[in-house]
Amino acid sequence: MPDPRPSVLYVCVHNAGRSQMAAAYTTHLSAGRVEVRSAGSAPADSVNPAVQDAMLEEGIDLSAETPKLLTPEAVQASDVVITMGCGDACPFYPGKRYLDWQLDDPAGQGVDAVRPIRDEIKRRVSALLEDLGIPVTGV
């Protein structure tokens, strides 16, 4: 039986910053009412430490997360695909809803530079959940 929850895939190049924050916020703010995936076209070895620190300030622990490789199957299994600077590396499938979020890349940045990116991602995730008809909790 297919999962009745809407599914969202967040994609960025390294899957070590923006997409990890967006996936964590989606899970947190939807209280699990959305199936969430994140991936990268060229995954890093680990999640950016400044991103982990910035998310811990929000009470969200990313220490167990690992960057994952983007696969066509992940795109096909998702209702909404949100890209964050992966360019043409993201496969396109008809019938999927695609959004491109232009966000600064937190790679190589300290936590002070990551906070505004984090806050903008939280705002966009909240708006997406509202658009999907999912109540936002845990704000």
Q: How would you summarize what this structure contains?
A:
This protein has helices spanning 18-30, 49-56, 72-76, 111-131; strands at residues 7-12, 35-40, 80-83, 97-100. With 139 residues, it is an alpha/beta fold. The chain has a single domain (8-130), classed as Rossmann fold (3-Layer(aba) Sandwich), CATH 3.40.50.
Report low-confidence residues grouped into runs of 5 or more.
none
Specify the helix fraction band.
Answer: 25-40%
Look at the helices and sheets and give the structural class: alpha/beta
CATH class: Alpha Beta
Tally of separate helices: 4
N→C terminal distance: 31 Å
Overall pLDDT: 91
Give the spatial strand order of the biggest sheet: 2-1-3-4
CATH topology title: Rossmann fold
Radius of gyration computed on alpha carbons? 14 Å
Biggest beta sheet attributes: 4 strands, parallel
Shape verdict = globular
Number of DSSP strand runs: 4
CATH homologous superfamily grouping: Response regulator
**Tally of discrete structural domains:** 1
Strand content: 5-15%
Helix-strand string: EHEHHEEH
Second-tier CATH architecture: 3-Layer(aba) Sandwich
